[in-house]
Every structure is written in C-alpha cells, then in structure tokens.
Amino acid sequence: MFAKKHTKTHSTYAFESNTSNVAASQMRNALNKLSDSVEDAEKRAKLENELDSFFTLFRRYLVEKASGTTLDWDKIRSPNPDEVVDYSTIQQQPANVANLAKLAVLKLNGGLGTSMGCVGPKSVIEVRDGNTFLDLSVRQIEFLNRQYDSDVPLLLMNSFNTDSDTEHLIKKYTANRIRIRSFNQSRYPRVFKDSMLPVPSDYEDDLDAWYPPGHGDLFEALHASGELDALLASGREIVFVSNGDNLGATVDLKILNHMIETGAEYIMELTDKTRADVKGGTLISYDGQVRLLEVAQVPKEHVDEFKNIRKFKNFNTNNLWINLRAVKRLVESSSLQMEIIPNQKTIVRGGHDINVLQLETACGAAIRHFKGAHGVVVPRSRFLPVKTCSDLLLVKSDLFCLEHGALKLDPSRFGPNPLIKLGSHFKKVSGFNLRIPHIPKIVELDHLTITGNVFLGKGVTLKGTVIIVCSDGQKIDIPNGSVLENVVVTGNLQILEH
C-alpha cells in the first residue's frame, strides 16, 4: 500500500485500532447471521464465500482508515521507458495469428443504463444502426473468428442487476460463430454509515441492500465461477478485458503479440489526455513499482497538479490484457490487494434517506501485483466509451462508420474528436431522441454546447464551435438543413458570429 504519514499520536492509533477491532467483530457476527439465514446449501456456500471476501475488504478498510495510510506525493515518479511504451514503437512485424488460440475476450457487463434513463443492462442500449453495445461486441468477435478461422470466446461479467436480462438476450446469438459465456461478479452487502453494520438482514433482502463491488472483483469472480480454470483447460492464457460501453476496444493482434513476446503478465492501454479526461487515472512509478494513480488518491493540495496534462499526459482506458495463469496464482495466494474505493450512497428506509457505504476496487489498480506489467499508449480510437448522451451523439454521428461491429473514424476528419456538452434536457436517452431525432453532421465540428429546450431538425450541419443556449420557458428549433459554423444561438434565435 502507499506510505503512511505518521501525524497521529500513539494513543490516537491505539484508540482507533481498538475501535476498528470492535467494528470488525460486530461485522463478523452480523455476517454469520446473514449466512445462517439461507437454507439452501448451495446458495449458502456461495454466499459464505462472498461474505468472507467482503469481510477481508471491510477489515482492510478499517485498518487503513485507522492508520492514516495515504500517498506520499514526493515519492511519485514518471514511469520509465520499460513501464510505459508507445504503441508506435511496438515491433511492426506480421501478426502471429496463431496467438488467437491463447486469447479470450471479456466485457465488463455489470452496469445498468439508469444514468442515461434506461431500464436494464447498459449493454442493451441502442447505439448505432439498430445495434446495441452487446450486438456490436458480438459482431466484432464473430468477424475476428471468421477472418482468421479462430475460436476466440466472449465472456460477459454480469452483476446481479444485469444477469437475468443478459442471459435472456444472448440466446439470440446461438446461431452466430461465437462462443459466449457469462458469469456473475460478487454480491456484497452495503454498510450503514453510522453503525458500520450490514444493511441486509437476510439473503432475500431488498436489492438496494446489496451492491456489485466494482470491476476489481473480476479476478475473484473469474476464479470462483470456475470460468478461470475452464479457460486455462481450453488453452487460453490471456484475457482482453474492457468496459462493455467502449466501442473502440477491439482485439489488437499487435498488442497480443507484444504481450506474449515480452512475457508481461499485465498490459494496460493508456491514451493521451484531453481537457475532457483530466480526472482519468494514470500510471506512475512509486517505490520502484508501476502503479495506477486515481484522482481520489491525490491529496487536495495536488489535485490541480494531477489534472495538468503536461505532467500526467495519459490515462487508463480500462482496456487490459491479463495473463490468466498469473490471475490464478495471485488469487489462490490472496496476493491481490487493490486500493479500496469507498463509495457513499443513499437508500430509502421508512421514507427517509439513509447514508450507506459500499467498498469497491478497480481492476486497473491490480497492475502492481503482476510481473512485467506495463502500459502501452494507444491511439485515441481505442477509447470510445459511451457514458452520457453527449458520447452517444458522437458515436452515432457521421464522424464514424460501422465496419464489422467496430467504429472507424472518417478519414477526412482532422484533429481530435469534438468536445460535446449536452445539458440536462438531453441527460436521458428519451430526451435525447426527442430533441435530436436526426443526428447532425459533425465531421468539421470542434466544440458543441447545447443547453435548454433545443430541438435539431433534419440534415443539420455543425462546424467549428457551436453554442446553443435556450433560456428557461423558451424553445429553440434549429430548422431542417441548417448549417451552423462558429456561432452562438440564444433564446431569441439570434445567431451571433463566434
């Protein structure tokens, strides 16, 4: 873990340590009662394994909180040339297609589409030409297998929120040339912030009493599900992991070959930061180790420095290449200890908002535990996530064309992708589709901001910097066929040169 700053007195440590022991003991007793509430032997065994893992995480959280474990900013160094390499420097030799026999692809599929106003798994949101995220992932792997006569399987790590819907959806791919497997990540109990006791009192408690503990749970879940051993038994040695909503995360033979040639157990794809990515985690060298530094770990007085794209030039895309035998070794030796991310939430009980805590981990933080681990700085085209409707506008636009499930940038585009900021009226997919029923042409767009009750007509073209601001209680309709270039459009429909 990061170095400790000893600013507390010994008596303070002793008191907090004792408090931590009491909290841990109370939690253990509560978890035992929780597991005893399950009558089915198979369900109880699974729950006990998950609760044991949760308790380990909870106890470590208490210890670190009491000891004041924090980051020593003075120890941060820029990664050396072996720890971060540029994609362009990887040897340009013919791809060894035979290495595909060692590969599996895994999509992180535990998220819901609630932030975009959708019900169910985020992977079923329609993003392009009638295709969902899941459709496009399947098309990508199917084309890869057809192109190289390979048999790369696709794994989906679901959460208890997305599992049943996903199992139903993947049935439609039975005729496709692809093997799809899914497994569930863990289900951990949320914790009341005041009492530090678990929210659920029995296994069948409301779903909001539980949470999926972040994608750092990937390693444990892969092992506990049996999928890890099944992959190894079938000759798979490497898994390519990415977020289910990243449409740029396609299999890259160049990176796969590089990983096998170098013997690296873990490769993290990085890409250059822009103004939109200043909070993205980055790789650093710390005490002779390559580590992932997240903004949440940065002392407040250094946050601006962290956001400086001249000092921290690139960030983690969460496209990860991981050696499966290394995963087995590290999980079975209990050696994976990723930094804990405390996430505060509220739930409703008895008509009142109750503060709860969920402890999460990120799989990128595991990089320091793997041998030969390093980052590869890849082109921005490998990072096309859709977190908001602003991102959705980008991937739906004429800036990209769809080829075998992958988005390809229009060759006439010059410079980075445009910066798009849509206001609260566009937060949900329903509002987005209502106000932008026809996607504008944006190949020559640099920056777009739209706020308020704005509607775009058909065949609209946006160029340069376009800002459309509609005042409260008013409405702006951009007429069909409009060409807006370097303009500000205000509530009274005045168009001003920008």
Automatic annotation (TrEMBL):
GO molecular function: UTP:glucose-1-phosphate uridylyltransferase activity
Pfam families referenced in this protein's UniProt entry, alphabetically: UDPGP
Record flagged with keyword Hydrolase: no
Listed GO biological process terms: (1->6)-beta-D-glucan biosynthetic process; glycogen biosynthetic process; trehalose biosynthetic process; UDP-alpha-D-glucose metabolic process
Matches recorded under Gene3D superfamilies: Hexapeptide repeat proteins (2.160.10.10), Spore Coat Polysaccharide Biosynthesis Protein SpsA, Chain A (3.90.550.10)
The protein, known as: UTP--glucose-1-phosphate uridylyltransferase
Family: Belongs to the UDPGP type 1 family.
Keywords of the record: Coiled coil, Nucleotidyltransferase, Transferase
Annotated function: Plays a central role as a glucosyl donor in cellular metabolic pathways.
Species of the source: Lachancea mirantina
